[in-house]
Amino acid sequence: MDLDDGSDVVMHDGDVLDSTENYTQATGTSLGSAIKAEHDSRGRIPRPNTLKSVTPALKGAGKKMHSLDLNPGIDVPRPPKFSQLPYATAQTGLVYDVRMRFHVESIPSENDVHPEDPRRIHAIFEAFVHAGLAWREGSEGPSNYYMGRIDTRKVTKDEVRLVHTERHWDWVQSLSTKTAEELVDELQHPGEYRQMDSVYLSPSTPYCAALSAGGAIEACRAILLGKVKNVFAVIRPPGHHAEREDVKGFCFYDNVSIATKACQREFGQRCRKVFILDWDVHHGNGIQQANYDDPNVLYISLHVHQEGRFYPEKSYRDRREPYGDLLHCGEGAGLSTNVNIPWRHAGMGDADYIYAFQQIVMPIATEFDPDLVIIAAGFDAAEGDMLGGCHVTPAGYAHMTHMLMSLAKGRVAVCLEGGYNLDSIARSACAVGKTLMGEPPDRLETFSPTRSGVDDVNMVVRQQSKFWSSLYPKDMSARLAGPLQGERMHDLVRKWQATTLWEEHEMSPLFIHKEKLSKSFDNQVLATPNYTEERPLLVIMHDPPEVLASPDPRTGKIELHNTWLTDIVKTYVNWAVEQGFAVIDVNLPKHVTSDDDAQKHEEVDEVLHRTVEATHLLTYLWDNYIELNDSSHVFLMGTNTGHGAIINFIKANEERAQDRLSKAISFVEDVPLQSCKSPTNDQLQSWYYGASLVFVANEHGFWHSEFARKSRKRFGRLEKSEENTISDMLVANRKAVTDLLLRETEKWRSQRPVGDDEEMAGVSAALPEPVQRGLPPVGNFALSPRGKAISNGNFTSPNGRQARSPRIGSPSKAAPPIANSVLSPRQRPS
Ligand code: X5A
Ligand code: ZN
After folding, report:
1. For atom 1 of ligand 1, which residue has the closest CA?
2. Which of 103, 114, 117, 198 maximizes ligand 1 atoms within 8 Å of its Cβ, making it the mutation to test the pocket?
3. Taking the CB of residue 753, how many other CB atoms lie within 10 A of it?
4. What is the per-residue pLDDT across 356-403, written as a single tens digit (0 to 9) for each?
5. What pLDDT, in 10s, does the model give residues 61-97?
6. 684 near 675, Cβ under 8 Å?
7. Is residue 536 a contact partner of residue 814, using CB atoms and an 8 Å limit?
8. What is the pTM of this model?
9. Whose CA is nearest to atom 5 of ligand 1?
10. Interior CA angle at 728 toward 726 and 730, to 5°?
11. CB of 715 within 8 A of CB of 673?
12. Measuring CA to CA, which residue among 322, 226, 320 is closest to residue 283?
């Protein structure tokens, strides 16, 4: 065996422990001076074998654990008290050694203390003592309930080599003989094979890193040897970012992976399968790498990912592709035993974590059925952590711990990783410690996971359902992306709408010049042929129709017979056409697809972004199709982001809007209500008040704001709807809208030539002429998704003045319209 020198295990050193463990107000600097006292004249920490050692060295892995018997303190683990309840009456172990505080910045920076602060482990130990969980000289005692103290020791080279390269070991070792200046130089001019990323170095770094990894091993061994029921290892430096040959993210040795492999080697069948749960807010790239092809190590990590923008992604020397995304599921025999739960946003809280545990972690871990559970327990997702930006509470950590304790007959080793707010980590660790000791978790206080959190979890379920028989619904994306070549329903529905609007009202697409084009833009803007004529023009900017589905509970499939589409906007279009109005119908997609994401789940685009897009579109329509025509009236109607677009447009085009716009009608369900206040024109808001009608959902937050009582006028003429969804509001308030439009157009209606339009509308509604009419001119005015204009010669110039040829589909391409005959499922009009 490849062993270190004879000093590789040093047990309790009375002097050091007594002088520092009671150092209750230890700070970075005061601790620094306590440590400096032990440095020799050259400013180096003595080699461990010069520290007074009270026990003989324990060499190598797999030797009998002697320290448990040798240490005569009150906090030594005792055997279970009651053989009928061996687990319940056994103690929780505690690994903590003050010497792990020696790893400090060699030249401390003045103002900003490095977050991976030596006080971190002290703060946790201190909190344990104060909470009565851990014993310290001077604590009341003896108590039967303290954690049982387990000594740490230095990891051996042989153990480190289970995970890291020899070069990695040698380089870490080499730090111990360097001066402060040399260490700074090492950081600033990293050698050819190494690039420093988020670490600091001190001569005692190799020593502390060795104690940290050794502590993780001894924690697990104590459980597997039956000395304790579970363990909390308060260790530093952390480990989960350290890779085979890289120190990274404050980490030197991958403590948890080293402990895993050491225990698998020592205990064989008794510790064949290890489950590592990593709740540090960062992805544990090191743990993933070390166990990626091992079917006997299940690694599950919950971490903020932000689509690759969060640490440690983008920090790899080899510039590798995202490593912590949900597609990384292991390789070879280890395919399926790597599970990433990447949060696309920070700000996750208890409810998100509990949801992930219930939907993913516990089903998979239960099916995996481990012999040992190790928690890579960073507390940087805790409320108050400055690096994580999340909100997990102590009760949240307690519940996660509690759930994990149902696995592996309760064999849970908690190993500290990150966590940088001293107060947060102390409180979180206490909650975990108490839970390990048998105390039921505190009540949770938040229960609603965030929208994106639910999406993130369900995406992982979908991915992992390929590998785990306990996960449903099963994924179907492979089928979609394969020979089936699924199309987005959004695009199909809009195509169908275009077909019906063509058949019933001869509505056809207006050319929209868009830089970034996608299928979702085809057919977005449909107009009746008379939109340039002297008659009222109604422009409706609306959300896509609502789809209500009852998915198959097992497969997640949405069957068409269990799916309903409600398109209330259509009834407004029908009504307006009957009145002889021209109509421009604008569909505002909730997500704009791009070519390469055709079969992927997409979150709804941000409201702000969608509103900006809708504003551009409205401005374009106004410039090219509305302003220059002969309309007698212009009515703008908008739902949700359409409302925002109308207000934005008015504010940016005060004069033009006031000149031509007759009424602006809005329906607002789940977007902010916009005011029409202009900084330069006081008169604008009173004009808008007179020209608007704004329906606001019954439960919209506005009604509880102070605006609802005073200064309402700037929001236009508000109507509180009885209803709460756009569809319901459009139904319930239709009469108010149509009455308003009738009143506004009274004069025009009494003067116009009789018969003309009603006749046309009546004919097309009663007597469709499918074969003659042919297919609607879908795609004729829009650009194709690839950005190429498809034109068959009938091109409407963007100024909208040119006459439009109403029938464009060539008769040879004619296919029966949807209403008149049914196409077989595979058949397509060619
Ligand atoms: C263990 C851990 C975080 C590193 C952040 C570097 N490391 N910016 O939490
Ligand atoms: Zn972290």
Report:
1. 418
2. 198
3. 7
4. 999 999 999 999 999 999 999 999 999 999 999 999 999 999 999 999
5. 333 333 444 345 678 888 898 999 999 999 999 999 9
6. no
7. no
8. 0.72
9. 249
10. 65
11. yes
12. 322
